[in-house]
Design a protein that fits this description.
Length: 183
């Protein structure tokens, strides 16, 4: 009986740790470049985090990485990707997404667009992936399509390799990084 009680107490402790854990993302940006967070908002079950290269801003950028998390989402990754890419295609219908990976756990799509109405043409990689606490999208956008083509394989690897990290202590430092963002 004491063993069952002890096991129950230990199990309750680990379950409570999981409940206070938070998820963040690790992105290995290109070497010798500095990317800064220009936007972060966490509202309810959604969080948005935006990075741009050093010297660029939230309103004036040429490249950006946007991470959007959906805590508790039970959609398969490919279904959420379909819904979101359809919305983006409605905003600028000049380019269609081409899927490189399309599963319920992870999907990766790419596209290039031309300028349409007030939306500048761009090239992008759009990934939707399962995370420990729901779903997450990671989008790389480059307004310079020539640069995008030159660095395509590098950015495809960066976006594919982006990963989540669950921290059980809010003051945890991740791989010597000085900041982390709750997603």
């Amino acid at each position: 009986m004491k063993r069952v009680l002890l096991f129950s107490i230990i199990l309750s402790f680990f379950i409570s740790l999981a409940a206070i854990a938070y998820e963040t993302i690790i992105i290995d940006f290109p070497q010798k470049t500095k990317w800064n967070v220009v936007f972060y908002r966490n509202i309810g079950t959604e969080a948005i985090l935006q990075y741009v290269p050093d010297g660029e801003s939230y309103s004036k950028w040429t490249q950006t990485v946007i991470v959007h998390s959906y805590k508790g989402s039970t959609y398969p990754a490919n279904q959420l990707s379909d819904m979101l890419t359809l919305q983006l295609q409605r905003q600028n219908p000049t380019g269609r997404y081409q899927y490189l990976r399309y599963t319920g756990v992870d999907s990766v799509a790419v596209r290039q667009t031309n300028t349409y109405k007030n939306i500048v043409g761009q090239a992008e990689i759009f990934r939707t992936t399962k995370a420990a606490e729901g779903l997450m999208t990671i989008q790389y956008i480059d307004k310079n399509k020539t640069r995008f083509k030159q660095n395509y394989n590098t950015w495809l690897k960066i976006i594919r390799d982006a990963r989540t990290y669950n921290s059980y202590w809010r003051d945890n430092r991740i791989l010597n990084k000085s900041e982390s963002y709750e997603l």
